[in-house]
Design goal:
Keywords: Pyridoxal phosphate. The protein has 394 residues and is α/β, with parallel strands linked by helices. The protein contains 14 helices and eleven strands. The longest helix is centred in the middle third of the chain and has 20 residues. The mean pLDDT is 94. The protein binds pyridoxal-5'-phosphate.
């Protein structure tokens, strides 16, 4: 894990007379004037720097993309209008009819939907496999497999993918890794064999639940160019204002991440002792099914997410959510915000599955996922205890 954090380095290139602003400027212009047709030629042919039209790129997107690329340790990446736009740029921008893709069976819900519903429609075949078992995933590879898509840590069971085992077996197949949960603070997938890295910047990187953005980068410049071309053609590109907010959020990213992670680790032990709690999942705990892999792969970083289960079914879950919400811990389907949020997978992210399908993943009506933010740990523990007591009484 590099101690140098080039993604956060100033300066900004704008000057005003003999002074320069210390905060990043925002440039909302949709279009850019060129001096001559020759100048435009030079720009399009890469002999001169410049912008032409905001869908094709603008200074705020370029600045944000460069910062995230530096954090992930790659040269080429683009910002997109959402995390799903980044997933689309990787899958739909690089795959064609006749290709086969292997995805983790625990991917983010919309990513799974893209695999199951959108890719088959354009002639791409899809297999799903368990990314915690590299052998099982490798067994799904075919001669026409072009890409593997996994997430480093899954939602909501926080299972840790066998990234290195999969990379070792990928053999010429593009390995795309959604690093949203772990972030470059815990893991830099390019250092472990990934070809493509994806982020929902909406989550921990931007970090304030006020900008919807994605990022996708590639080790190979040609792949990055293909994804960029696809994103520009389909209009997957991002607004300057959102990029500006995210760049501002990045300034505090490491502080936020470290604080949230430390609180999550402490809370995971507190939650275990609360009334009615039947199970706690946190990758830093010895009883986590992938605890050893997490310790090795994530270099002692275990994320800001804690998943737990309470007894008593839906009635208890309702009581828990109501009481925790009243105590200041809202149930809201996001993660990585400065404010902590609870999610209830059975009624949100995993509502499309049957109860049996959820049970196979380990999700019950009593399963909650907590995204830990920046509040005082004591206040969060208090809100969770209020929830647990209400659930036990329900
Ligand atoms: C939220 C999320 C996405 C999608 O990101 P959006 O910004 O909401 O489009 C993709 N992957 C993971 C792991 C996510 O958590």
């Amino acid at each position: 894990m590099a101690e140098q954090r080039p993604g956060l380095m100033r300066p900004f290139p704008v000057t005003t007379g003999v002074s320069a602003p210390v905060a990043a400027p925002i440039q909302p212009s949709v279009v850019y004037a060129a001096q001559t047709p020759d100048a435009l030629d030079a720009q399009y042919e890469g002999r001169a720097e410049g912008h032409t039209y905001a869908r094709e790129g603008h200074p705020n997107a370029a600045a944000l993309a460069a910062r995230i690329a530096a954090m992930e340790g790659c040269d080429a990446g683009i910002v997109t209008g959402s995390g799903m736009a980044a997933v689309a740029a990787a899958l739909m921008g690089l795959l064609k009819a006749g290709d086969h893709v292997v995805g983790s069976d625990q991917l983010y819900g919309r990513s799974l939907r893209m695999l199951r519903e959108e890719l088959p429609r354009i002639g791409v075949e899809v297999s799903l496999a368990d990314a915690t078992r590299a052998e099982a995933l490798a067994a799904a590879l075919r001669p026409e497999t072009r890409m593997i898509l996994i997430e480093t840590v899954s939602n909501p069971m926080l299972r840790v993918a066998d990234l290195e085992g999969i990379a070792a077996r990928a053999r010429g197949v593009l390995l795309a890794v959604d690093n949203t949960f772990t972030t470059p603070r815990a893991l830099r997938p390019f250092e472990h064999g990934a070809d493509i890295v994806i982020h929902s910047v909406t989550k921990l990187l931007a970090g304030h639940a006020d900008a919807t953005l994605g990022w996708v980068g590639a080790r190979d410049a040609g792949l990055a160019e293909r994804m960029e071309s696809f994103a520009v053609t389909l209009g997957l590109t991002a607004s300057p204002f959102d990029c500006w907010l995210a760049e501002r959020g990045l300034l505090t990213f490491e502080l936020r991440y470290d604080r949230a992670e430390a609180t999550a680790a402490a809370l995971s032990d507190r939650i275990e002792g609360m009334p009615g709690v039947t199970r706690v999942l946190y990758p830093g705990r010895a009883d986590h099914p992938d605890g050893l892999r997490a310790a090795a792969l994530l270099a002692g970083r275990f994320c800001n997410m804690v998943t737990f289960e309470i007894a008593g079914g839906r009635a208890a879950a309702n009581a828990f959510a109501r009481a925790a919400g009243d105590a200041g811990l809202p149930m809201a389907p996001t993660l990585g915000d400065a404010g902590s949020t609870l999610s209830h997978p059975a009624s949100s992210s995993h509502r499309g599955l049957t109860p049996e399908g959820r049970a196979a993943l380990g999700i019950s009506e009593g399963t909650f996922r907590l995204s830990v933010g920046l509040e005082a740990p004591e206040a969060l523990a208090g809100a969770l205890l209020r929830g647990a007591e209400a659930a036990a009484a329900a």
